[in-house]
């Protein structure tokens, strides 16, 4: 096959050029994202119900929705949480569920349930969780002094949002911090009383004045006209002119008995940029869009906004393209330095300029053609797929060096150029194919991990398979053709010598050490075997992390004030903290209270705040955040807060609200939360005292109104009259809405803003005898501690504690008995169980990978024993990687694990080729020598033949990665653990391939032969 292709160089060259042209065209169409577009199998339903208690939201809203959603296909878990004025339901589906269909199904069921929900409740929001929903950048919109905030809100909603959504690649624009204008009506109670009127007269006048006839039409000859009442109102002045009539027939303008004006509607949340109130726009990209092209368009649009709208200040924060740019930058750096060092190392080892040029052509060719595979598998260019390409680059260089070295060796043996090219490739073809298959056997099974991890590994596995597959084609077809082209002028001359002086010195040193080690073979082999458990034991000294510690200059402070405060008080506290920092930060923003984002799938309440800070240096960040923590502890001892690095897209994808180990119980008798006093007594007898209260047990102070039914009956007052009056006094009572072309302006009855006891004393209801009685005659109130949240799952309402013990499952039997004694159904839940499932799954997948590795190698060597040599070389490389990670103070994390896979791929390659060479030499010398002489000569000569490619591969890879160690910045911080793993593994791995493989082969051959 190789001979056939070599005989047609023009056809081969044109084919590769065509593939590269198509690849370049395809590359321009590939989407560029930070992360793969993963469908997280979750849907969140959010409910906003102003002036409703947690119990009311649970009973009237969340409970019927939960019951209606129980029959959803693929529903794995269902959690709900009701708080003051807000509620959430989180639906988790089996991984692999078609989330587009699930989303439609959930919305349909919500629509069917609408009639059974409270009439004054806005439609619940249904939010689908997706990696593309992570905003790529946040645009700050700050009104300048003297400009109306509501006008800027309208500008943001109606103009800025639409202009940003028109940018190519933008899928959605979300807004937080909006304020809308309303019309308030403040009745003059004294005047109304003097005229014999009530608030009811004012309300009826406004409703009648804003009525619209629904589709009434009249005919005038052959024409038809639709009727419209001319009494509709559009502004406060229109309302003030409306007539109000008393029961005695007195009529006058509404403006004489009430004050009507525009006001800003009361909000449940606000946004701060620095110490100024403003709005924030989050920009989300389309799945097929290129982030590196989208972000410049957003920046350009903001510059235009600054010119067009001088009444507003703009700024951009939390640009998520930094991580992607770091990944692309690292790949470019690897290519540039890899090419330069490959050229230098090949020149040092081989002493000619042609071979490095061939490598220089094959490396980018393989990379470019790999993007064709991306296109056919619908893979985007993202941080995950780029790391897969970086993974394959090491082996790509390895394959090229091995093929070129083997062709050169064949020429040394006296073969003609054409024959050397063909034989050189054919001899190593099966070994190289096996080495690629073994690498894929280790890596590809990880695709079958469940959840988000498996989906992420899919992109990486495809990119690794793509570049390794393409590298084989290049190594078997393009490389020999290029070699033939570059050396054609010397085609008639056998290549007698092409080793540099440096390599001759290395070869001399290798032979000396080989003789010494093989002089004491048993001792040397035993020492190698002892090093395996010792090296692997180093893992217990390494810290385990998700992502490597990256130098971050931004931080997030999440605060729950744990007190029943409103949004204004929340804002004042946040402003106090910002002022105390005295502007020692570069940028800050804060979301105070409930967030208005459509895509926000987390939980927020009036008493929560989320602060973001950007600092100039990490030292400043650490110092100021420590101060911040001290200030919160001293000034607000009840507050619960958490200070952490600002989450990037990876953190947001892998973050989980799930507690580590939660004990849940349900009251089997009442199906409701257990009363506070009884629960406190039961918790004092809980078997495990190291716990924190779950959401369903957290308390907050509240005021409880109780109606005196006997007095209401005595004075002839209906309970619904009293409830309506209380709603007007304490709630947001909407009289009607003004609707103009999609813009809705509510008209609300304004109530007094003062102590509720005074309100009850100074407002009255008329009894059956016509006498007015103060409301406090019929309402008793108490200050009580009530549960802050009501939590529920598929089985109904539950309460819980979160265990903080190192071995939380050790008390399970006692906890179950504690629950049974109190008629509680107890269950256990949390990340603890998920982690155990993942570990068991991972162990199973790795066992499958090792079996695949063994089967492939058995087929390659036609032996059941020789694959064990390859398998035993791997722990030595891993031990070397662990040693370097420990010395450099690095952790075992995602990036260092990827480095281990890179290193093991190269080690497997070297070991397979060396064993394959030994096998061929044993067959060759079996006719010339007898007994142990055949094995000894084959081992010695195979080591000499494979020394150059093994050394060149290791040195090239190490030197190509070395610049990352001395670099700084986000990209270098991410890649450094990977580099340490590869350097440590290859340093030991090279020594292993040179000496352990022949020792292990000698030991197994000695014991397997008769």
UniProtKB/TrEMBL annotation:
<dbReference type="InterPro" id="IPR027463">
    <property type="entry name" value="AcrB_DN_DC_subdom"/>
</dbReference>
<feature type="transmembrane region" description="Helical">
    <location>
        <begin position="464"/>
        <end position="486"/>
    </location>
</feature>
<feature type="transmembrane region" description="Helical">
    <location>
        <begin position="357"/>
        <end position="377"/>
    </location>
</feature>
<dbReference type="InterPro" id="IPR001036">
    <property type="entry name" value="Acrflvin-R"/>
</dbReference>
<feature type="transmembrane region" description="Helical">
    <location>
        <begin position="436"/>
        <end position="458"/>
    </location>
</feature>
<feature type="transmembrane region" description="Helical">
    <location>
        <begin position="950"/>
        <end position="972"/>
    </location>
</feature>
<feature type="transmembrane region" description="Helical">
    <location>
        <begin position="868"/>
        <end position="888"/>
    </location>
</feature>
<keyword id="KW-1133">Transmembrane helix</keyword>
<feature type="transmembrane region" description="Helical">
    <location>
        <begin position="12"/>
        <end position="30"/>
    </location>
</feature>
<feature type="transmembrane region" description="Helical">
    <location>
        <begin position="331"/>
        <end position="350"/>
    </location>
</feature>
<protein>
    <submittedName>
        <fullName>Efflux RND transporter permease subunit</fullName>
    </submittedName>
</protein>
<feature type="transmembrane region" description="Helical">
    <location>
        <begin position="978"/>
        <end position="1004"/>
    </location>
</feature>
<feature type="transmembrane region" description="Helical">
    <location>
        <begin position="523"/>
        <end position="542"/>
    </location>
</feature>
<feature type="transmembrane region" description="Helical">
    <location>
        <begin position="894"/>
        <end position="913"/>
    </location>
</feature>
<dbReference type="Pfam" id="PF00873">
    <property type="entry name" value="ACR_tran"/>
</dbReference>
<keyword id="KW-0812">Transmembrane</keyword>
<feature type="transmembrane region" description="Helical">
    <location>
        <begin position="842"/>
        <end position="861"/>
    </location>
</feature>
<keyword id="KW-0472">Membrane</keyword>
<feature type="transmembrane region" description="Helical">
    <location>
        <begin position="383"/>
        <end position="404"/>
    </location>
</feature>
